[in-house]
Structures are given as structure tokens and as C-alpha cells.
């Protein structure tokens, strides 16, 4: 069947590009053109997967900086994805490649354009035709509108995508629109903004899907329904972590091209249940302590733009706080992967593909992908939960690496985008120099988990609560700046929640008292006010002022127009070995 289709689409002709003659071949999967008049050795060949052809137009056409069409009879122009490496980040930049072909006759020209269009329809079924685009005009450096109109809209137009654009006038407008308005006919939704805008789309799309399925999303026991609408992100925010971690670069053109060709990247989502029956969703950071405090502080300084996080980070760091709490977690299957196995989740990731089979019982049946998720708690009992009690600088949970420009490898460099697990990072109370070392390692390739006061666990669910009242009343705001480690928070212990040992507390003699503190004059001004006993949660950039939460990871709940990070090195090997391969061989197609 496939071979038959391949044969029907196959086309081979001698065409001109400029003043050189090429042998052009369309196989259905690839469009390839090889210089015809040269001897074998220096033959110039270009091969583009059909899946990466953006569009084909009759005549000699240019798109950027402005559209121009020279309507000639025997010419056609092919637009496609072209890669270049990015010096500043880990992924590859995508640009719009363009080649103008001249045919010997108009009939042949029409045959070529028709065949390419049919090949696109056949081999790229997820390409969007209609998109809803939300632009936050105030995100990041406030360039959202300009970025969309100058860099993204021309590409959508070229690909024949019709877009309904809404420039937001208030926070949560995009989320509310997705929850309430008619979405018939839309293939996907796109945000132009930062992680906060993405979060609005995430909430809208998940909420709408559960509403339509008649499910109560606030009930942590419910298995949520996979979302049929794809989400696209055009980065124009402050951290842009979700874009960075799923594409590898912060670049509007690259992201727009991923949308245009209908790339599809499943993504794990963490539901955070808090307060009386409320839920929020996160894909990057659910953080208590340091990251919660940084976010709360940064809200006061929004006018600073993206720099507010650095400023607030320094302020919070200097206030040297730590918080008591009880963390319980449900470990993931250690045979699948580990947060310290030094692997990276790249495009075509094997761990994620294997997890797809585990997460969806009938993975071979495409249609069942959205209905047969077996949920994370199919076999677990209370005995499987592990409980940890102590004082922490921060507690972070992330469903993916959470890499961003500040931290190119991310909060958890070996986390996976779509394996149905999250990484729980516990940073016990430690002296400021120790904590600074931990933070600083995020900016280098040094292992931030290789520190005595840090632990990381791959998990399926997490519970957090404040320590019991007597313990909570203990002082906070630690002023110890020594490096001896004695004041470290790592004197709690670990136990199975359901077992007899249950919730171990710190051993006698190691309890921190105010006498242990060493005052540092530099810090004094910041610490004289009474430090709070509880922090807030940072849920993908939104403050949740309820310390007690329950988090559950939903494997591959949503899909993005992305394909994971492409590794430049493997791409090069691949290109050297097989000329016709224009990208990483392991990609699923
Ligand atoms: C010493 C250098 C330390 C660098 C530490 C970098 C850690 C970076 C981890 C980033 C994880 C990001 C997770 C994503 C969060 C976003 O959802 C969320 C919302 O983003 P949006 O505004 O684009 O909508 N962003 C955030 O919550 C921002 C978190 C950023 C934390 C940055 C902390 C900077 C710390 C600087 C410490 C400086 C110490 C100086 C000592 C004198
Ligand atoms: N028109 C608007 N006015 C005010 N806030 C908005 C508007 N549109 C969106 N928002 C909110 O602004 C917040 C930050 O947006 P985001 O695009 O993530 O930028 P940044 O990365 O700079 O924080 C989001 O939480 C979003 O809900
Ligand atoms: Ca994951």
C-alpha cells in the first residue's frame, strides 16, 4: 500500500536551478536535487524530507522581507526547513530555505507542484490549517505583536494556514476564551508570549477537554483525557523555559516552522491539587522555598522586565531562608531511567518512546492514543510512598529538564519530556556558600546533584505539607554563612510512608537552635525582619499561596508543535553517512 503510494508520487526530471542543470527526484518521502553535469566526486546534492517542505508556489516567489511574485510559466519555488547551529543554545536554528526551479514546459511545472502538494498532504497529516493565536502584548520585552507580524505571520500565510489572532487585553483572557468559546475547526492554539501565556493555554486546553469529556479535573483520582488540540509557542516572554526545553532555542522563526510543518511532541503535565478542591497544571517548575520566594519577590518588580528574576534571585538569596516541611513521593520505575543517568532527552528519545508503550495500552492503534491512558496509580498502594521530613532551601518538581537561557541544561538535565514521570529535587538547608554552589552549577555543565545536601528522585506523584505545629514554630531566616555543613538541613530521614517507621524526625542533638547561628554583618540589614515560616509555591510562574499540595504526573497529556531538542552533533554524523538525510535519523515519522 505504502509502496504503491510511493510509486504514484514518484517524479524524476531534469530541471534548472539558476544556470545549472539538476536531476530532481520526488520519492514521496524526500525531494532531492543533484547537479547533473558534474563528475561523481563533487556532485552537489540537496535532500529535503517532504515532512520539512513548507510549501510550493508557481512562479519565482520570495517571502522575506516582503512577498514578491514573478508569475512565470515554467518556474516553481519550493520553501523548506534549513538548519544552522546556534552559538548561544543547545538546539538548532531553523530558517526558511528557498529554491527556484525552471522546468522545460508548463505541463511539467504543473505536474511538479501538484505532486509536491499531494506528497505534503499524504506525509504530513498533522499540519495545521486553522490556528487560534493569542498575543500577550506585555510579555517579556513587550515585542509580541511585532514578532508575530514580522516573523511568524508571513510563514503561516505561505503555508496556507488561516489564523484567528487575538491580542490579549487582560490576564487569563486566553484561558477563558479556550474554556468557553467555540473552537470548532481549529487544529491548534498558539501563544506569543512567555511561560505565563503558555500556562494560560495549557489550562484552557486541558480544562476544555475534561469539560467535554464530563470529567471533574479537580478530583486527583480522575484520569485526565488527552487533549486533541496542539499547542504552539512563539517565544516572546521572560524565561521561555517551555520553548527552550522542547525546541532547544529561543527563536520565533524556528518555532513558527515547527508549527507550520505540524511537528508533534507529547508532553507530561503535573496536576497540582491545592486548597479546597482546586487544581493548577505545570510542565516546568513546581517549586517551594527559593523559587517560590523569587517569584513572589519578582511580582513587585515587573517593571524591570526579564531582569526582575535576577534581581529578586539575589534579594531572596541574601535573605537566606529555609523552610520546614514533609515531602512524600511515589517513586517511578527505576528500571526505566534515572535522573542521574547522564542521558539527555533529545528528539526521537528512546525512553519516551518506550514510555508511550507503557502509558497507552494500545499504542499501536493511533486512534486510541487519546483514550487509553492507564494513569500513574494503577498498581500502587500507600506502602509505596516514601516520606521525608526536614528543613529545605527549596523543593522542586519538574516534568522536563526545564532548561532555559539561564540554565542551558536545566533544573534536571536528564529529565524526559514525555516519559510520564517528574524529577523531585530536594535541597536541604545548607549554608549560603553551599546553596550558591548549587545554583551556580545550573549555569555550567557541573552536576548540581553531586552535592551532599541535594537529592533527586524520579517520581510519579508528590505530596507536601508543613511540619507539625511545634516544629513549625522553630525559628527561620538562618544567618549561618559558614562552610562547615553542621547547620545543613540534611538531618531529616527517609522512610516508607505506609511502613511502621513512618515520618522519622531529626535525630536528637542535631536540631538547629538559634545558638548555632553565625551573624554576618553584610546580611544583617536583610534579616532583621522576622522571616516567614512558610513559603509559597511557584507553579510555572504562578504563585500558589497554599503550602499543602498534592501533585500527580499525567504522562503525555498535551501535545506541542515541536519535536524535542535536535542534537547538532548526531545530525552531522547522519548527514555525512547518508546524503539524503537532512536530519536526525532516529526521529519518529
Ligand atoms: C548564580 C546563578 C544562579 C542561576 C540559577 C539559575 C536557575 C535557573 C532555573 C530556572 C528554572 C526555570 C523554570 C521556569 C519557570 C517559569 O515558568 C517561570 C515563569 O516564567 P515567565 O516569566 O517567562 O512566564 N519563571 C520563573 O519562575 C523564574 C525563575 C527564575 C529563577 C532565577 C533565579 C536567579 C537566581 C539568581 C541568584 C543570584 C545569587 C546572587 C548572589 C549574590
Ligand atoms: N493583556 C494582558 N495584560 C496583562 N497581563 C496579561 C495580558 N495578557 C497576558 N497576561 C498575563 O501576563 C503574564 C505574563 O505573561 P508572559 O507572556 O508569560 O510574559 P513573561 O514571560 O514576561 O512573564 C501571564 O501570566 C499572563 O496571564
Ligand atoms: Ca517527564
Shape: elongated
What share of residues are in beta strands? Answer: 25-35%
Rg from alpha-carbon coordinates: 26 Å
Proportion in helices: 10-25%
CATH fold group of the largest domain: Tumour Suppressor Smad4
Domain count: 3
CATH architecture of the largest domain: Sandwich
Classify the secondary structure makeup into a structural class: alpha+beta
Q: Describe the largest sheet.
A: 15 strands, mixed
Count helical runs. Answer: 14
Oligomer: single chain
Give the integer mean of the pLDDT values: 84
Between the first and last Cα atoms, what is the distance in angstroms?
17 Å
The level 1 CATH classification of the largest domain is: Mainly Beta
Which stretches of 5+ consecutive residues score pLDDT under 50?
362-373, 472-493, 496-528, 572-589
According to DSSP, the number of beta strands is 24
What ligands does this structure carry? the ligand CCCCCCCCCCCCC/C=C/[C@@H](O)[C@H](COP(=O)(O)O)NC(=O)CCCCCCCCCCCCCCC, adenosine-5'-diphosphate, calcium ion
InterPro entries: ATP-NAD_kinase_N, CERK_C, CERK_PH, Diacylglycerol_kinase_cat_dom, Lipid_Phosphate_FormReg, NAD/diacylglycerol_kinase_sf
Organism: Cyprinodon variegatus
Protein name: Zgc:158263
GO molecular function, one term: ceramide kinase activity
Amino acid at each position: 500500500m505504502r509502496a504503491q503510494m510511493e510509486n504514484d508520487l514518484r517524479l524524476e526530471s531534469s530541471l534548472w536551478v539558476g544556470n545549472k542543470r539538476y536531476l530532481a527526484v520526488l520519492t514521496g518521502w524526500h525531494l532531492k536535487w543533484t547537479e547533473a553535469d558534474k563528475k561523481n566526486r563533487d556532485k552537489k546534492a540537496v535532500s529535503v524530507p517532504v515532512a520539512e517542505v513548507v510549501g510550493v508556489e508557481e512562479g519565482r516567489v520570495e517571502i522575506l522581507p516582503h512577498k514578491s511574485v514573478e508569475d512565470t510559466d515554467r518556474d516553481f519555488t519550493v520553501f523548506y526547513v534549513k538548519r544552522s547551529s546556534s552559538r548561544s543554545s543547545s538546539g538548532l536554528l531553523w530558517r526558511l530555505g528557498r529554491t527556484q526551479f525552471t522546468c522545460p514546459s508548463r505541463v511539467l511545472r504543473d505536474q511538479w507542484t501538484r505532486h509536491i502538494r499531494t506528497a505534503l498532504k499524504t506525509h504530513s497529516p498533522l499540519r495545521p490549517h486553522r490556528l487560534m493565536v493569542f498575543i500577550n502584548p506585555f510579555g517579556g520585552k513587550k515585542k509580541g505583536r511585532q514578532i508575530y507580524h514580522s516573523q511568524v505571520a508571513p510563514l503561516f500565510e505561505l503555508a496556507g494556514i488561516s489564523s484567528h489572532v487575538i491580542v490579549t487585553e487582560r490576564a487569563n483572557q486566553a484561558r477563558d476564551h479556550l474554556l468557553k468559546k467555540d473552537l470548532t475547526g481549529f487544529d491548534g492554539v498558539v501563544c506569543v508570549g512567555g511561560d505565563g501565556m503558555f500556562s494560560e493555554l495549557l489550562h484552557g486546553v486541558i480544562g476544555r477537554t475534561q469539560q467535554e469529556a464530563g470529567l471533574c479535573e479537580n478530583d486527583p483520582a480522575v484520569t485526565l483525557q488527552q487533549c486533541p488540540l496542539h499547542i504552539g509557542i512563539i517565544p516572546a516572554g521572560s524565561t521561555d523555559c517551555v520553548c527552550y526545553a522542547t525546541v532547544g532555542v529561543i527563536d520565533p522563526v524556528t518555532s513558527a516552522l515547527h508549527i507550520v510543518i505540524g511537528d508533534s511532541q507529547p508532553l507530561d503535565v503535573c496536576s497540582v491539587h491545592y486548597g479546597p478542591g482546586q487544581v493548577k497544571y505545570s510542565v516546568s517548575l513546581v517549586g517551594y522555598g527559593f523559587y517560590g520566594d523569587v517569584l513572589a519577590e519578582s511580582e513587585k518588580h515587573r517593571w524591570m522586565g526579564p531582569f526582575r528574576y535576577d534581581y529578586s534571585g539575589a534579594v531572596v538569596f541574601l535573605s537566606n531562608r529555609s523552610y520546614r516541611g514533609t515531602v512524600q513521593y511515589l517513586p517511578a520505575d527505576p528500571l526505566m531511567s534515572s535522573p542521574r543517568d547522564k542521558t539527555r532527552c533529545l528528539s526521537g528519545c528512546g525512553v519516551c518512546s518506550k514510555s508511550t508503550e507503557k502509558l497507552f495500552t494500545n499504542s499501536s492503534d493511533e486512534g486510541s492514543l487519546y483514550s487509553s491512558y492507564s494513569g500513574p496509580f494503577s498498581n500502587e498502594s500507600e506502602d509505596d510512598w516514601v516520606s521525608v521530613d526536614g528543613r529545605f532551601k527549596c523543593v522542586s518538581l519538574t516534568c522536563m529538564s526545564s532548561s532555559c537561557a539561564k540554565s542551558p541544561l536545566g533544573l534536571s538535565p536528564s529529565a524526559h519530556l514525555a516519559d510520564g514521570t517528574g524529577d523531585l529535587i530536594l535541597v536541604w538547608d545548607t549554608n549560603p556558600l553551599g546553596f550558591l554552589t548549587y545554583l551556580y552549577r545550573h549555569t555550567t555543565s557541573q552536576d548540581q546533584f553531586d552535592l551532599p545536601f541535594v537529592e533527586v528522585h524520579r517520581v510519579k506523584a508528590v505530596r507536601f505539607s508543613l511540619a507539625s505545629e511545634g516544629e513549625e514554630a522553630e525559628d527561620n531566616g538562618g544567618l549561618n554563612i559558614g562552610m562547615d555543613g553542621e547547620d545543613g538541613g540534611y538531618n531529616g530521614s527517609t522512610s516508607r510512608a505506609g511502613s511502621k517507621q513512618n515520618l522519622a524526625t531529626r535525630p536528637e542533638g542535631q536540631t538547629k537552635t538559634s545558638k548555632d547561628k553565625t551573624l554576618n554583618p553584610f546580611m544583617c540589614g536583610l534579616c532583621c525582619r522576622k522571616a516567614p515560616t512558610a513559603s509559597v509555591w511557584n507553579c510555572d510562574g504562578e504563585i500558589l499561596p497554599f503550602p499543602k499540595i498534592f501533585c500527580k504526573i499525567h504522562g503525555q497529556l498535551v501535545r506541542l508543535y515541536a519535536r524535542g531538542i535536535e542534537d547538532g552533533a548526531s545530525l552531522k554524523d547522519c548527514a555525512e553517512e547518508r546524503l539524503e538525510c537532512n536530519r536526525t535519523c532516529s526521529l519518529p515519522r
